[in-house]
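We emphasize that the prediction below concerns an isolated chain of 153 residues; any contacts that depend on oligomerization or on bound cofactors are therefore not represented. The input was used exactly as deposited, without trimming of termini.
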Amino acid sequence: MLMILRKAKISDVDNMAALINLYAAKGKMLYRSIPSLYQKIRDYSVVEKEGVIIGVGGLHILWNDLAEICSLAVEPRYIKNGLGSALVHRLCREGRRLKIAKVFALTYQPGFFEKCGFMRIDKESLPQKVWMECVNCPKFPNCDETALIKKVI
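Result of the prediction step, given as a token string:
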């Protein structure tokens, strides 16, 4: 039952999309198209078990000091096994390596991110550049997600 946490590859995209969009269909995160995942493949890390992607998460860089953890999803059978936390810690380390001071998340699972060391903030305190993707969200402008942030350097 060896699990590998690694950067995503092009061959992972179909499985990544299926996992992310499983949660998007339930209104728990934003839908990601196959083309958008190809275009941003370098943003993503995955957890692989026996050749199957069972976890995914992205680090989307927004500015010189700010990045967002996005599309964090774990296959439902593997929730509560530490995979989500492992992905978050990996993405934060990646941000630190890139000298990005802060990583934030917009989520319906604030308790999970708080356990990972994030602190709740007002969404309005995030800079305007954060909202570029939000205008395409069906919930815009009435976002009901919680914003959290973590200093990584």
